[in-house]
Amino acid sequence: MTDRQARLGLMIPSSNTMMETDFIRDLPAGIALHTARMFMVDTTAAGENRMLDEFALPAARDLGSARPDVVVFGCTSAGALRGNDYDARLCEQIGNVTGAPTVSTIASVRDAIRASGADSVGVITPYVDELNERIRDSIEADGIRVAAIAGLGITDNFEIADVDADEIVALAARALGELARSGQIGLAFASCTNFGAMAARQAIADHLGVPVITSNQAVLAAAVARLI
Description:
This protein is of the alpha/beta class. It folds into 2 domains: 112 residues, Rossmann fold, CATH 3.40.50; 108 residues, Rossmann fold (3-Layer(aba) Sandwich). Helix 2 packs parallel to helix 4 and helix 5 crosses helix 10. The protein is globular and about 50 Å long. The termini are close together.
């Protein structure tokens, strides 16, 4: 990079109030964050399909006018919704519109899982089962076993950010604790960019005794790696 600040572009669902906070807290010095919002209020397949079809590329066009150096597509379940090949094509489209390389959240998570060497993972989410199954399919397409996936069944995206750290840790303990203790999982993944799991990551790891990946942590690391 030159002496100017690097520009990280972020595309998020309009009702997401967590991802910018997580990024700003952990962004290295010298990187500025610029955000575009894609209208979405319902964390359901229907709500995410509408976001993808109507609002993703217009948001990319708007974000492109800020001339970002790297762009993040900041919705885990929407990235998994139509399969990994679709997610890769979407990022290519966003890159063409914004003029910047684009990383998706679900692809960054998959890369982080592969890099961990774990062959079996446990997953927690705030989602309904319909979206959980898309997350499972995305991860298992890489040959990684999803030993368990448990969600909170929340369909109002704004409410997902209200789930506190203690509740997230409790969900992990309830859904994955025995699997971690018995060695059936080598890694835990907390999905969703509007879920407060990044701040609770260490507490989850301490409780389970296995490494933890979160959506925001994984994609932020992937984006920063493109900038430095």
